[in-house]
UniProtKB/TrEMBL annotation:
<protein>
    <submittedName>
        <fullName>Response regulator transcription factor</fullName>
    </submittedName>
</protein>
<keyword id="KW-0238">DNA-binding</keyword>
<keyword id="KW-0805">Transcription regulation</keyword>
<dbReference type="InterPro" id="IPR011006">
    <property type="entry name" value="CheY-like_superfamily"/>
</dbReference>
<feature type="domain" description="Response regulatory">
    <location>
        <begin position="2"/>
        <end position="122"/>
    </location>
</feature>
<keyword id="KW-0804">Transcription</keyword>
<dbReference type="Pfam" id="PF00072">
    <property type="entry name" value="Response_reg"/>
</dbReference>
<dbReference type="InterPro" id="IPR016032">
    <property type="entry name" value="Sig_transdc_resp-reg_C-effctor"/>
</dbReference>
<feature type="domain" description="HTH luxR-type">
    <location>
        <begin position="143"/>
        <end position="214"/>
    </location>
</feature>
<dbReference type="Pfam" id="PF00196">
    <property type="entry name" value="GerE"/>
</dbReference>
<dbReference type="InterPro" id="IPR001789">
    <property type="entry name" value="Sig_transdc_resp-reg_receiver"/>
</dbReference>
<dbReference type="InterPro" id="IPR000792">
    <property type="entry name" value="Tscrpt_reg_LuxR_C"/>
</dbReference>
<dbReference type="InterPro" id="IPR058245">
    <property type="entry name" value="NreC/VraR/RcsB-like_REC"/>
</dbReference>
<feature type="modified residue" description="4-aspartylphosphate">
    <location>
        <position position="52"/>
    </location>
</feature>
<dbReference type="InterPro" id="IPR039420">
    <property type="entry name" value="WalR-like"/>
</dbReference>
<keyword id="KW-0597">Phosphoprotein</keyword>
Amino acid sequence: MRVVIAEDAVLLRAGVIRLLADEGIETAAAVDNGDDLLGAVKEHRPDLAIVDVRMPPTFTDEGLRAALGAREAIPGLPVLVLSQYVEESYAVELLSAGAGGVGYLLKERVADVADFLDAVRRVAGGGTAIDPDVIAQLMARGRKNPLDALTARETEVLGLMAQGLSNTAIANTLVVSHGAVEKHIGNIFSKLGLEASAVEHRRVRAVLTYLERS
């Protein structure tokens, strides 16, 4: 696997490069701003871009904008965004930009090496990885929405889907059968009005609905 990293904090950037190298993951380029990120992904065509949300010059959303631009330049480019704080609108906007291959983690999650590397592999493989703290904050909004139709168990399953867990991992977490998880997911799709489509990825759409309306 080859990655491009965009992170202006020198120590964190070096730390991520070292973590990845220890796992045999090559860093094709490491930059500290959004413009250079776009150039690096176009030049190296990496398997994954790891991007800080806030970078120079204004330290607001340059990283996110660059990540979205990179996905426009290279459709389907997996992007794992890192943020210092829970900024829920960024997670929703990133997920809205494509069906899979996206992640949003708090920087503190990098300290948990196993979780971070799992997220790297999951996103690079086309899946999603959303930080549990982001999901918890979105759930705290408490406004009425289509998710009210879901049972407590279905909501729990959808929350685990939002974290990027596979059906097997969800079954193991909830200590239920694989078939039970598939049934819950089928009910979730039905209740959210997500019909089967060759164009739209229902799993990602369900997660996006969860993040937007929880």
